[in-house]
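thread from #wetlab-drylab

HS: before we spend reagent money on co-crystallization trials with uracil, can we at least see a predicted complex? here's what I'd submit
DV: go for it
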Amino acid sequence: MNTKPDDIHRLLKKAVKSQIDIGTKEIIINRNSAKLQINKCDGQTDVLNVASEAELFNQINTSTLGEPEFDSLEAHYDKICNCQKCPLGKTRNKFVYGVGNPHADLVFIGEGPGRDEDLKGEPFVGRAGKLLDKILEAIKFTRDDIYILNMVKCRPPENRDPLPEEMEACSPYLIEQLRLIKPKLICLLGRVAAQRLLDTKTPLGKLRGTFHNFMGAEVLVTYHPAALLRFQAYKRDTWEDMQKLKARYDEVTR
Ligand code: SF4
Ligand code: URA
């Protein structure tokens, strides 16, 4: 596949951004050989060939997630639970890390804690959470089969969307959680998580329906349960998304 300079630029930006997210120390771009050398925080080096889109994606997908820094989710939690890296730290009641099976093949990612989650310290326990439980039940999952987390660990005031800089500050935590859990599938709930993780401005409706890739995991996007509570019309599409997710889950975990 031939890649136009603009595409290479876009792909490089994306590759570099995801490397920064996961704590890469140094990135060397050699224009003459069209190679991108990535010196990772664990001392290892990856070299990406940026001459071909297919190869670039292939290499990013198999190389970026890397090994976790911590031994367990508990050890990671202990280290970060008093975080004050962004202003949301000051206004939270409880830090909302995530719940579920630490070895889940499927991870759901929401936006950020709401009022109930902030009080309890657990994601998706309010009205939207109850609906998420029903959705899970419909595809024969319980909270113990999967893992649930959010883009930001602390509640944005008045339930506003988390700001890009807040998600930026919090994203190394999410990446480390994904490194520890190593899911095969990720379901992104709603526009905020979808556009941020897939690094796109494409509307949610257009991101639905096909699998995307995030650091080696297959990603399906669907409506946020809070949106479903407001707009009944999304129910049918969400049901279709969940059927697709379940079918793929059965395939990849067989
Ligand atoms: Fe830290 Fe994330 Fe909470 Fe901000 S939202 S204070 S980065 S844990
Ligand atoms: N909405 C989210 O995105 N996450 C929660 O944990 C609760 C509501």
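DV: The first helix runs from residue 5 to 21.
HS: ok that's useful, forwarding to the group
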